[in-house]
Amino acid sequence: MQTVMVQGRTFNYSHTIGKGSPGGPGFRNPVDLALGKDNTLYVVSRGSEAEPCQRITILTMDEEFIKEFGGPGEEDGQFVWATAIAIDSQGLVYVADEWLNRITIYDREGNFLDKWGAPGSAHGQLNGPAGLAFDQEDNLFVTENLNHRVQKFTKDGRSLSTFGKEGGGEGELTRPWGIAIDSRDDVYVADWYNDRVQKFSPDGTYLTTFGASGTGPGQLRLPSDVAVDADGDVYVTNWWNRKVEVYDRDGAHLTTFIGDAEKPSKWAQEFIDSNPDYKKARMRARSLEPEWRFNMPIAVEIGDDGLILIAEDQRWRIQVYRKEQDWVDPQFNL
């Protein structure tokens, strides 16, 4: 891809951030990311049962390591199976844990502040919290993977409303995962098992659907996350198909990202340079193109100045793109 021009938009690949965690800073099975003040990046490493790595890494967009926090466990500030991260208007960091069915709150430096949540399917309870997003009033929307719904909370954990139920019809959800909220407070939900993204009004009324099941352009298989930029364009991590699909705000497919990491990240290059045998093996490879492409893209985040960040579950890195445009939709930018 590198550069694609489509319907007044130009998408450029920028650079890659991060690498696997053995030996120095890095990620292990990252599942979500969030941008804080000055585009400071928070990345959730979930790890695996064989190689646990429950932590959050803070770094800059230039790949300068700041610190890590969290850790495996059930005590305050720890988590077992983290799924999502979101940052409120004050810079506080919220992390969802699908095993403990709770939301943990940290300050921007990663110090534990509070936690809330209890397991169950009743109003106010959680079952498999999977995605987090704040609206304009700092209410927190949580997708529940095992309750097949979206629940709206105040920041201190008081439930305000729910919408969605298990099924494949309009407004129904089957194991929803990622979630995003646009500048109008409309809600977008990655409907994982239904191979689509659904859009709802702020009160949970069904509005429209993006994508359909399949492997072709604009089609989805197990979409894991969704993001919306300032112009209303919608980005979906097409997890099983190893792509990222881009739609306009009316659901028309615009383009597909497939991954463009031809140059290793700074951390990855430092690892390569310090391991001569590994460096020689790469030089003998017939082609490195498979390494450039996405391998299970799992999360997408929109930053300032048109930045689009895409985390890969299996390649343990983030590919960064930038959107430029020749026009702005005045009806969407209110």
List the helices and strands and how they pair.
Layout: E1 3-6, E2 9-17, E3 30-35, E4 41-47, E5 52-59, E6 65-69, E7 82-87, E8 93-97, E9 102-106, E10 112-116, E11 129-134, E12 140-144, E13 149-153, E14 159-163, E15 179-181, E16 187-191, E17 196-200, E18 206-210, E19 223-228, E20 234-238, E21 243-247, E22 253-257, H1 266-273, H2 276-284, H3 289-292, E23 297-302, E24 307-312, E25 317-325
Antiparallel strand pairs: 1-2, 2-25, 3-4, 4-5, 5-6, 7-8, 8-9, 9-10, 11-12, 12-13, 13-14, 15-16, 16-17, 17-18, 19-20, 20-21, 21-22, 23-24, 24-25
Decide which structural class fits the backbone.
mainly beta
- Oligomeric state of the chains? single chain
What integer is the average pLDDT? 93
Report the radius of gyration as a whole number of Å: 19 Å
Strand order of the largest sheet: 1-2-25-24-23
The backbone outline, from C-alpha atoms, is globular
Q: Helix count, per DSSP? A: 3
β-strand amount: 35-45%
Task: State the total count of DSSP E strands.
Answer: 25
- The end-to-end distance, rounded to whole angstroms, is 32 Å
Are there runs of 5+ residues with pLDDT below 50, and where?
A: none
Percent of residues in helices: under 10%
Write out key terms for the chains shown.
mainly beta; 5-stranded antiparallel sheet; 3 helices; 25 strands; 334 residues; globular; single chain; 4-stranded antiparallel sheet
Quick synopsis:
The chain is mainly beta and 334 residues long.
Structure overview:
- By secondary structure, the protein is mainly beta.
- 6% of the residues lie in helices and 42% in strands.
- It contains three helices and 25 strands.
- Strands 1-2-25-24-23 form a five-stranded antiparallel sheet, with no helix packed on it. It has a four-stranded antiparallel sheet with strand order 3-4-5-6, with no helix packed on it. Strands 7-8-9-10 form a four-stranded antiparallel sheet, with no helix packed on it.
- A hairpin with a 5-residue loop joins strand 15 and strand 16.
